[in-house]
Design brief:
Radius of gyration of chain B: 21 Å
Helix content of chain A: 55-70%
Oligomer: heterodimer
Helix content of chain B: under 10%
Number of strands of chain B: 25
Low-confidence stretches of chain A: 1-6
Shape of chain A: globular
Strand order of the largest sheet of chain B: 6-5-14-9-10
Largest sheet of chain B: 5 strands, mixed
Radius of gyration of chain A: 13 Å
Distance between the termini of chain B: 59 Å
Structural class of chain A: mainly alpha
Structural class of chain B: mainly beta
Number of helices of chain A: 5
Mean pLDDT of chain A: 85
Mean pLDDT of chain B: 92
Distance between the termini of chain A: 20 Å
Number of helices of chain B: 6
Chain lengths: 98, 398
Amino acid sequence: MNGGGLRWLSVASAMMVLLGVGAASAGEEQVQLRDARGRDDTTAFCATCHSLDYIEMNAAVFDRAGWEKSVRKMIDKFGAPIPEEHAQVIIAYLAENY
Amino acid sequence: MTNRRQVIAGSAGILFLGAAARAGGESASSPGVAGETLVALPGKKPLIKRSFRPPNFETPLSGLKGAFTANDEFFVRYHVADIPEADPRTWRLKIGGASAQRNIELSLMDLERGFERVSVPAINQCSGNRRGLFVPRAGGIQWHHGAMGNALWSGVRLRDVLNRAGIKGDALEVVFDGADRSVLPATPDFIKSLPLERALDENTLIALEMNGSALPHWNGAPARLVVPGWTATYWVKHLTEIRVEPQAFEGFWMKSAYRVPTGAFPGARFASQETPETTPITEILINSMVTSHASGARLTRGQGAELSGWAWDGGSGISTVEFSVDDGRSWRPAALGKDLGRFAWRGFRFALDTSTGGSRSIAVRATARSGARQPEQLTPNPSGYHHNIVQRLMLEVA
């Protein structure tokens, strides 16, 4: 991850803290995404609003186009504040690992 | 505000049972569901966990055998993760809107004492129930059979409450908001609307109780909308505000979500929300499921077996349930159980010949009083709604 990525990651984490969100429900910490490039971005941005089991649950459903559409929906319809460079990283991570 | 967060973060007492618990005789709701995790939310028995946050939990097959689905086994479905626990003493329901004659505010005691008390037995079924069985696959919560249940809902008629506020002649839709909120301000709040005529239907309730007890938190305490015959997306939980409006509600959960291709399915029309391309999902379609056995179950040769389950539709009632043991070439009637009400499910049962060993393919189909019959083929729709095709089970007699 480059420096810009780290900076955004910390912004996302700080936002989660400020909003008091990303407050994991008991048990969800057991859900861990596969270790590969892009996991930190995916965890930080996606887990702001929902547990990561949503990703596992749809792994058998979405291909790359499906993941791209899903991430775009989170940004365009649900207001996820994901900068474009991070959206690309997340889409690539999801397409390659789920 | 603190208690919102505490509810989410404080979901202690979660119990992981996982596949091991299943091996002890609990049967999965469908084949090929290895890896399902049973988790108990506070106040609930272990349910099939689909997602932790927002919480989406499905009733296992074992919880669907009774005529009324137990409150602590009833499925849980949320779209947004900020779910406050209501204080019944301070809770208020606001009624207003541009087509209301006046704004009113009601306490729980006002609702309990100021209106006629009514009860309706009704199926509460998620629009996406069985989405996980859809072909082609559809994104979203991958439900199997248990995003539904039957309960006796008690409370007051919505129309009596609306009439207390007064309805202007130009009213078109009634809009419902609950206390659950999205995590980010930019995420659309879960707000739904109904056509005025459905809101005024005598069966549409503001329910305070479920199966004779106060609504569980996870099913909408202290008050939720009950729209018998319509899918659960309209049954807004934790009601806080109801608005009577002269125009179509424009929110995301009406305009973009919970829509099907226009003309693809039978059932009530929601004219004010319809476009040439898509229209809101409305009524529950004719459907049935076997609850006595899961596909893959083993039967003992020569001992005989009785299969049973439930059939339901959007309120016309069940006319017949038939079963086939020859892959649909011939059908025989199943015996129907007691009529619990036209919005509830109807029991059925039939005996299976187990005098010879081997695999048995069993198909079950229901027909409604409306004449609608379960189809063999799914009607394609992008969100995977209305999965109601004829169920097939493979049983082994040995």
